[in-house]
Amino acid sequence: MKSMYKNAVMALVLFAGLTLVSCNQGGSNNGGALKSSAAEKVFVAPGEYDSHYAFISGGFSGQLSVYGLPSGRLFKVIPVFSVDAEKAYGFNEETRDMLKTSHGYIPWGDSHHPDISQTNGVVDGRWVFINENNTPRIARVSLETYETAEIIEIPNSAGNHSSSFVTENTEYVVAGTRFSVPIPQRDISIKDYKGNFKAALSFIKVDPESGNMDLDFQVLMPGFDYDLSHPGRGKSHGWFFFSTYNTEEAHTLLEVNASQNDKDFIAAVNWKKAQEYIKQGKFKTMPAKYVHNVYSDETHSTISTTKKSVRVLDASKLPGLVYLMPTPKSPHGCDVDPSGEYIVGSGKLSASMTVHSFSKMLKAIENKEFDGEAYGIPILKFESTLAGTVEQPGLGPLHTEFDGKGNAYTTFFISSEVVKWKLGTWEVVDRKPTYYSVGHLMIPGGNSRKPFGKYLVAMNKITKDRYLPTGPEVTQSAQLYDISGEKMELLLDFPTVGEPHYAAGAPAEVVKGFSKKFFKLEENKHPYATKSEDDVRVVRDGKNVHVYMTAIRSHFAPDNIEGIKVGDRVYFHVTNLEQDYDVPHGISMIGANTSELLIMPGQTETFVWEPKQVGVWPFYCTDFCSALHQEMQGYVRVSPRNSNVKLSWSLDDE
Amino acid sequence: MKGLIIALLSLSVLFVSCQRTGNQQSSTEDLTKNTPKGQASVVDEESSPNILQLAIQTKDLSTLVAAVQAAEIEHVLVNAGPLTVFAPVNSAFDALPPGTVDELLKPENKKKLAYILTNHAAPGTYKGRLLKDGRKIYMATGEYIEVTRKGDDVYFGGAKILATVDASNGVVHLIDKVLVPEEK
Amino acid sequence: MKKSKILMITGSLLLLTLFALPLWNITLEAPQYPDPLGLDIHIDKLADGNNPNDVRNIDLLNHYIGMDRLPEDMLEFKIFPIVVLVMAILGVLAGLSGKPRLYLTWVIIMAILGVAGIYDFYSWLYHYGHNLNPHAILKFVDKNGNPMAYDPPVFGTKQLLNFTVHSYPASGAYTMMVGIVMAIWAFVTGKKEG
């Protein structure tokens, strides 16, 4: 027995010696080059996971990209408002209707502000909401499938910019209009803007289980431009804050004419009060045409419905619904700190930043400290709500996020930097340059009660000489800073897809557990699903031909089809029979005027082919699925219109 | 048994000390130092010149350029803008009380100098018809400065506009006086 | 009741857990399967070992090298449940009789059946690994130029192409062992009590 212990001790001593040696080796490597410290902080070894997800908007690409932090590696580009031929989004029969609007099918959109759903004021990693600016829409992206699950159009809105931010239990996702328009739309002179153009702030209810969105009501506001917004949280839960500009109500050369007023407003909307007014029936039901598209993971198809009316609350007529807080010089960002007490207005043309206090606002409302009104909406006295001013922090303040440790971080477009300052004392603590002209910034959970204040991502509009040149259009970029210390530290530049307009982030543990591996074949309710090779068939219905096809490693069934005629409209309904992680199959047909399909395991997708020439035409698997991917192919025989070739199909001549 | 415990203890001590060294090594290294002047460091000889490049090329603005460099605000003049810069010519600086310029160029007055220079820049592109008589223009410092017209001449805060040059990121008006902000 | 009787009866009743628990598990590991594929062998069926669809996915891979689909019914699946049930009843009866000699007999029969079962298992694996479709997509040969065989090990770990295959007893086998040990223990204590 004794000798056994001896051996054990010897082994441990040896082991300890080994650790010591390996530790020393690591030390000398690190010490050798000082530069490696930033590199080490962003290095994620092959096979290791990043610690955070970042969902970065593609801006004018209309998409949402998924990155890992701190490595800056790109994992996926999720098409939301723009078609994506790679994933057949907007091309196949199943997702085409996702891009349907009251203006018809629109293949492109301008995605702006992603925001992750929240529970009790903390990001819960279930869905990402994102707004489309040009043709006002809000989308919900599922973090089970990393696909767009739903898109709702917003009526009475134009330039859907102060969107799509969620309240602290995802009761609402909120969308505000940047451009005011005649409501309802009508044929009037543009010069009659003042007083005739109105704005709508939309409150979209989110089902807590399914996430399904429904436009609950709109608040009708004066014809200003509503730039950005954020929810109240904690003590200010129940309120929503919108920054405004063009309170001049100019309709031309806004560059000059909307910069005349010394102060614009931050509008504080009491949405709990709005709910009461709705209950009391004090809304007006206005005719409005908007389209709502929902994608189902069971039918793998979209159901698109057109809505005909919307409930509207008039802010000018309903007391206590909205208050206006004067804020200097066209405030852009409108950011609420994690406690819900401070509302930061970044006057983009102002040299200083204004911070309002929520509790002072409530007191000012109670004491009726008003400084007139705008279209019946009370304007609170500037001094009454003012918590403090950050003096001369930089030029062109845009957006602010928080680290949850009492610090705020603001981006400055003109002076191209991120400035760290302290809430309460309003003193500037640190500043770091960005390369170049930063727009938004993102701290994971930065728009919630609980920010995860380790990293900060600055999203730049211009890169000039930062990367190898790629012609006149160069990449836009994001920059990663470590904000865990007193001073910020630049760690990494990484290029982005499209314009990195804004982003939302969360620790990987919050998000990754929801991710789905494949769709269960037995739950597939697609009307044209084929769940077994015994059921494959080809059915003619006049000029329409439906091919019920399956794909599995490494063949299609059927892979020989005859009896198709010139002028037919052939629907390939292809079901991927695989039930294994990461085994998609693709399919494309020579001469098909559409994209490929990229079918996930257990899924059914459809593309249409209209053969125009007689002959025998091949199709094949477009996703390198297996060792015999190159063998995964088939033929369709196309005969003249008047031919008598019988419709037939086979696999292995059976 | 005792030996075992000691071995375990020493092992854990080694492990801890190893961790500590790891932390010490993450000393900060400032990657922003590679590009000290931000966007002003970008070398581009082909694009039409931005406001800073234009000022550097204009002999009559050499004092202004020296002042901008002393105040280290070059990056303000190269960003996407658009910006309108009212650029005092050398003789405007010469007209200031003797010693003023030398005083401002001293490092300890960097902040004050930056403020005075920022007071010559306005966000937006103001030129031609947009310089309406009586229009107040909002400067990057937060001050307002008024445009006045006398016949064909345009004055800005009392300074006469001598010439106007378009830049890639805005416009430069050469003026004959320095716009000294009121003392606060 | 005597301790030996309780031990013998409990031990033989433990056999019944085989109707729920797998007897054996074969796990296939490969770099592209971070979640290894698993096959659970029960007395009456083959089942997904580690994740849903494992059997389906093993079949999918096997078709490339010409192996048969994993069987849904075999003669064994009909015989094994009867044998297990009969042995459990016989064990209980032996226990009720209270005769240690019968306990030992039961243990010996179990041992013989066990060896027979493992031989049957081996021959099935051998057949499965050698009886390949001549039209297989991928045909490999061993060093001597003979067609490669893919029979997994009966017990232990073996490299088959890009897969590391582990074959070990599963929970059902362990409860059965405990049952047999209890029967032996019953025999020993029964002798002393006697």
Automatic annotation (TrEMBL), chain B:
Keywords: Signal. Gene3D superfamilies: FAS1 domain (2.30.180.10). GO terms for cellular component: extracellular space. Residues 48-179 form the FAS1 domain. Residues 1-22 form the signal peptide. This is Fasciclin domain-containing protein.
UniProtKB/TrEMBL annotation, chain C:
The keyword Transmembrane applies. It comes from the Bacteria. The chain crosses the membrane at residues 77-96, 103-122, 168-188. Keywords: Membrane, Transmembrane, Transmembrane helix. The keyword Transmembrane helix applies. This is Copper chaperone NosL. It comes from Caldithrix abyssi.
